[in-house]
Design brief:
Layout (H helix, E strand, L loop, with lengths): L6 H16 L6 E2 L10 H6 L8 H10 L4 E2 L1
Helix pairs in contact: 1-3
Length: 71
Amino acid sequence: MVGTENPTRANFPFVWAGALHEAGHEVRMELAGDATVLMRDVAVENTTSVGWPPLKQFFEKVIKFQIPIFV
């Protein structure tokens, strides 16, 4: 997994988690390595990928859906 050094790739697991949950799947996330930094508020607030909305938007959806995140 990647962290803030590649914001576009870092965004994908959060996008997919929300979309899979909305499609009715049971979802959980596991962050490892560099991706663990994405659990910090400063990272969520300042990670913006190319061609996608900011990470904050997808992170908030994961929290709203109460998708478990394991670090």
